[in-house]
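Why do we care about 3D structure at all? Because function follows from shape, and shape follows, mostly, from sequence. That is the central idea of this module. The next example makes it concrete: a single protein chain, its amino acid sequence, and then its structure expressed as tokens.
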Amino acid sequence: MTPILPPWIVLDPHLTQWLQEDIGRSDRSTQGLPNVERIATATWIAKETGVVAALPVAKRIFELLNPQAKYEPLVAEGAACGSGESIATITADLATLLMGERTALNLAMRLSGIATATNKYVECIADLPAQLVDTRKTTPGLRLLEKYATTVGGGVNHRMGLDDAVMIKDNHIAAAGGITAAILGIRQAMPYPLTIEVETESLVQVQEAIDCDADIIMLDNMPPDLMRQAVTVIRAANNRIKIEASGNITLTTIRQVAATGVDYISTSAPITRSPWLDLSMRIKAI
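And the structure:
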């Protein structure tokens, strides 16, 4: 999946809000410095190995503070970086560099951490057909960017929100009184061309989802042997149906899951459990 950032008209309000959160009424640490209008150059340095993400976002943050700021990436978005490697330079007045530093670095470190973790999962199954997809377990306010980071790391985005597709999970099934009742009711109300995905936990539920002509069947928390049986049943019944595996996916288990023949493996781990990639900014001595 090619990484595509949302347009700035969508992101700018968020970036502006995050800058305002950090700056508050004024940057008290910078306003008293002498000659903060002087132009200087700062370098971003990776302090550990990982996959770099959000360089365009960092560039935009400095541009919002000063349209004349020049942010020059030294590595490509999504490239692997080594500890001590310079990944970007920023040339602007000192006030802009100092005010934008924390917000830009925080986002880049967070998103690079997600890209790095995602890439580790993707590499585990690179020679198998299954694709790694993310989930809606994202930080409120950061979903667009966290899911963007997933694609930078080589993953695929699942639905962005509740309006993207129908996903009938265990609580929907319980509320409706069964898979059949849930699908029949939702299908009458949903707009074209949304798809229907159903979460299943047993072969009985799998068969019910097949009988209701679900577009995607999720195999949730199934052991590999049962998952393999479910894949066989689904493929024999309707090869059009896509199959997703989910539930406690780790770097240790993902390859075994992919080997069952599923099309997609969804996990929240690269977003919810990834550490930030350590980056720092150094202003050249003046």
